[in-house]
Amino acid sequence: MILKNYKGFFFLVTILIMLVLAFVQTGCKVYRFKDVSIPDTIKVVKVNMIQNKASYVNPNLAPKLTDALKQKIVSQTKMTQTNGDDADWEISCTITTYSFSTSGISNQRVNTNRLNVGIHIEINDKRAQKVNKYDVSRSFDYDGSMALQQAEQSLESDMLKSLTDDIFNRIFSNW
Predict the structure, then answer these.
(1) What is the pLDDT of residue 106?
(2) Would you say residue 144 lies in a domain?
(3) The pLDDT of residue 12
(4) CA separation, residue 91 to residues 46, 87, 111, 131, 167 (Å)
(5) Which domain holds residue 143?
(6) CATH number of the domain encompassing residue 119
(7) If DSSP codes are grouped into helix, strand and coil, which group holds residue 3?
(8) What is the radius of gyration, based on Cα positions, of the chain?
């Protein structure tokens, strides 16, 4: 009988500790949702046009990736976007790598090629007066019989989604 009371007591104490921790965690001045962590002082963001400084330039990638990143930030955060100088964070990205390589050979023929894309990210945190720099990269495989332009067209939607997610996660989820 006494053992039952101790079990109930320990259960109740455990629940109370968990509730206290939950309330303490909500007051840490960072709001979180969908695995996104943004300091509460950051309310306005400016996303500059993505620059393309790779040795090979896909002329469609930078403007479409810029638009996709802006849309993702609007839909997944509470931040307001601006084009002015009043931003708390200014995000600048540069496509640094856009290269092709053979990734698979069968019967002495290329059967798979790989497109490699690398992006350098800089976040100018005007409130903290510091610049954070990150790099992301992603590889996309495609059929070796496809011409480069065909591959770019067939991979475009996957590239935009994957690269946008990678940039967003690196900036807002500390991945």
Answers:
(1) 67
(2) yes
(3) 59
(4) 6, 10, 38, 10, 10
(5) 42-172
(6) 3.30.160.150
(7) helix
(8) 23
CB 84 within 8 A of CB 46: yes
pLDDT in tens, 107-152: 666 578 999 999 999 999 998 899 999 999 999 999 988 998 999 9
Extended strands (E) in 51-172 = 51-52, 80-81, 89-106, 109-125, 130-143
**Residue 108 backbone class (left: φ over 0; alpha: ψ -120 to 50; beta: rest):** left
Q: How many domains does the chain have?
A: 1
Whole-prediction pTM: 0.75
Cβ atoms 142, 113 nearer than 8 A: yes
**Between 86 and 41, residue with greater pLDDT:** 86
Task: Assess if residue 92 is contained within a domain.
Answer: yes
Q: Do the domain assignments include residue 49? A: yes
